[in-house]
Amino acid sequence: MTGINTLTPKQMRLLQKLYEEGKTIEVHTVEKTQDELAKELGITRQALSNHLKVLKELGYIRTGRGFIDLTEKALELLGKKRGDVFVFVRIEPTKRKQVYDAVRKLNIKKIYRVTGDIDLIIEADKSKLDEILEEIASLDGVRETNTHLVLEVL
């Protein structure tokens, strides 16, 4: 197997190009076989395959060996798109480590420790916003939070 130390310059350029040309998409992954799905839906494997092909061509799913991903487009169509939220947090300097440790335990996407007027940027799912804000507000050492909802990705 090729490791990172054995990639050719062209392979590295290809990876960089794919990264630059790519975009982050939100997916919802189903890890069932097509046989299982067909049986649960009461249709033949062939019929399921045809439906999946159409959904893939329309950009609603991505498929691979052993998985089916619903794309952001599908989640939006189904009314399931949750949306992202960023919470900016200011912390008492003497309580930073305690707050960092507590925030790591929350059900959030990412935590960014940053410089400037704020100490943390928390990236989370909008559906969990109330719960997250309540937990953050209860932490000893949190001075202030400022919340920003993502309207769209440009």
Main attributes?
154 residues; alpha+beta; four-stranded antiparallel β-sheet; three-stranded antiparallel β-sheet; 6 helices; 24% strand; extended
What are the segments in which pLDDT stays under 50 over at least 5 consecutive residues? Answer: none
Q: State the total count of DSSP E strands.
A: 7
Instruction: Let me know the average pLDDT.
Output: 86
- How far apart lie the N and C ends? 38 Å
Give the radius of gyration: 21 Å
- Order of strands in the sheet with most strands: 5-6-4-7
Order of helices and strands: HEHHEEHEHEEHE
Class per helix and strand makeup: alpha+beta
Main sheet properties: 4 strands, antiparallel
Overall, the morphology is extended
Q: How large is the count of helical segments?
A: 6
Portion in beta strands: 15-25%
Percent helix range: 25-40%
